[in-house]
């Protein structure tokens, strides 16, 4: 799916009228099947950009076109069909705690299902092999029939990402997919996303705090600062000086957040003796 933003601005509906727009006059073109990472300090407008592209938020100024169409000029029924071709993965995936993982993954297909098939899938998963294959890309196939509330934070995040592989969407929008992952899992997750999008011909836009991951896995980097475009460059042309200027007000964020190791096995911990109570 081709993306075109022309002087596009975005303002959260709950923000005060006097507050500055979260994203201001952004112009950007993304070719169908292209992959790019969006980086920048907190509050730069990265998540707002994804919400605009997902048609979850109407631009407050400027124009947005998806495959040459203004989504907000479409009739409501056509807009809903268009949204079925878009996949948005929030940083914290909305997974019902008592739901089975297989059902949570196959929820990625719901926008493209009919009403009765989607209702049936809540009780009888309709494509278990697809869910298993998607989970296998994230090393989670053994969790296929586990309940969501028994997963770690990192495992839940990977389940949310596995939805993309079964969604059939033409545009994948992924918001901070590595925040709960240890370094090894983070590399695996980014590789699975980029390879999966490439195999399916989907356009991939991901926001990342992990600058080194963005540079290593994405051919194009967009830098945002204070709601405006700071640069749009091939990853090979993003120099340390450019990054230092982008994060000048937030130098602690330049190397990315400290990985959450709750998803990583503790190999150094020694087994504790079992306490037995005899009666």
Notes on the protein architecture:
The chain is α/β, with parallel strands linked by helices. Helices cover 32% and strands 19% of the residues. It has nine helices and nine strands. Strands 5-6-7-3-8-9 form a six-stranded mixed sheet, with helices on both faces. Strands 2-1-4 form a three-stranded antiparallel sheet. A hairpin with a 2-residue loop joins strand 8 and strand 9. Helix 5 crosses helix 6 (153-167) and helix 6 (153-167) runs parallel beside helix 7. The longest helix has 18 residues, at 183-200. The model is unreliable at 256-279 (pLDDT under 50).
Strand content: 15-25%
Q: Got a strand count?
A: 9
Molecular shape = globular
| Major β-sheet annotation | 6 strands, mixed
Rg on CA atoms, Å: 20 Å
Spatial ordering of strands, largest sheet: 5-6-7-3-8-9
Order of helices and strands: EEEHEHEHHHHEHEHEEH
Q: In which range does the helix fraction lie?
A: 25-40%
Poorly predicted regions are 256-279
Structural class assignment: alpha/beta
Mean pLDDT: 88
**How far do the termini sit from each other?**
69 Å
Helix run count: 9
């Amino acid at each position: 799916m081709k993306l075109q933003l022309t002087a596009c601005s975005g303002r959260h509906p709950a923000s005060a009228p006097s507050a500055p727009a979260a994203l201001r006059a952004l112009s950007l073109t993304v070719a169908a099947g292209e992959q790019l990472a969006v980086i920048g300090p907190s509050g730069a407008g990265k998540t707002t950009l994804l919400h605009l592209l997902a048609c979850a938020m109407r631009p407050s100024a400027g124009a947005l076109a998806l495959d040459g169409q203004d989504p907000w000029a479409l009739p409501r029924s056509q807009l809903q069909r268009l949204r079925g071709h878009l996949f948005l993965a929030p940083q914290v995936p909305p997974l019902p705690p008592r739901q089975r993982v297989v059902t949570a993954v196959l929820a990625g297909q719901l926008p493209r299902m009919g009403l009765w098939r989607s209702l049936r899938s809540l009780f009888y998963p309709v494509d278990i092999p697809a869910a298993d294959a998607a989970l296998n890309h994230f090393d989670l196939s053994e969790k296929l029939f586990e309940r969501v509330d028994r997963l770690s934070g990192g495992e839940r995040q990977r389940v949310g990402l596995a939805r993309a592989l079964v969604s059939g969407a033409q545009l994948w929008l992924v918001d901070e997919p590595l925040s709960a992952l240890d370094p090894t899992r983070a590399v695996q997750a980014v590789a699975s996303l980029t390879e999966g999008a490439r195999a399916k011909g989907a356009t991939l836009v991901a926001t990342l705090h992990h600058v080194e991951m963005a540079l290593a896995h994405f051919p194009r980097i967009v830098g945002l600062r204070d709601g405006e475009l700071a640069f749009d460059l091939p990853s090979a042309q993003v120099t340390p000086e450019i990054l230092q200027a982008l994060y000048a007000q937030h130098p602690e964020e330049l190397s990315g957040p400290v990985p959450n190791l709750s998803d990583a096995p503790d190999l150094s911990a020694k087994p504790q003796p079992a306490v037995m109570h005899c009666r």
